Amino acid sequence: MNFSLLLRALEPKPDRKALEEITVNVPSVARADAAGILRGWFGIVSSGLSYEEAQVFQVGLGTLGCETDIVADGDIPSLHQDFRCHLIEFSGESIILTNAMNRRQERRRDEFVFAAAGIVERERPVSDYEMQTEVRYTQNGAYTYQVPTRVTKFVEKDFFRIDLFFSRKPHRISLEMDKDSLITYGGRPIRMKNCTELAVLLADLKSLLPPERMNRCLRELSTEPSYPSLQTYEEEIRWSFHRLGAKG
Fold first, then answer.
1. Residues 68 and 11 in one domain
2. What are 216-221's contacts with CB under 8 Å, separation 24+?
3. What is the C-alpha to C-alpha distance for residues 79 and 173, in angstroms, rounded to an integer?
4. How confident is the model over 217-227, as pLDDT tens digits?
């Protein structure tokens, strides 16, 4: 069985050099892993550890003021597949969500159990054509020529994402936008650059739940820090779910 180390709180965040020093005693964690661990410091420090390694790592983190729990990997909650919408509005005791096919669903507020939001960095594949040099051989010798070749590159794009979790199916509904797309709240289009309109939506969402039932960015009404990947964004949600379960 493999184990994970889960933080009891997201702060303090240790110094990288100090973290590198304590990884020396954890065989499956290299010093070079410290930068990645700190970049993904959103609740789950490390997974796939033996129990003995987890204990050693836990003691080392304790010397840096970071309290952790050792949890079996299989006991960390997994997340449901999301159901994507682009329009949200509140009406009385209902949350109304509409997808791109104009399919509308109404959810009761008493079914609303958790919310997360934040800027997520993600690599997106982009196809383009590049001129590449090829060599052709003939009886008279070799010559080169340019051939247009389709290539796929990965570019980083920032997305703003909101995830709403409910007690009945579909359990997870998400809204997402980038600089080229939008979401709609209360009949008003919101783009990533519309900071004021976005702040209104986040504040209204925050008012519906107690602090422990939202991620840090929503709780603090801040887009900092951004999440370096969708995985780290989801890890904070999974970490929060485990903390809620641990509290009963």
1. yes
2. 216/10, 217/116, 217/117, 217/118, 217/119, 218/115, 218/116, 218/117, 218/118
3. 11
4. 999 998 777 89
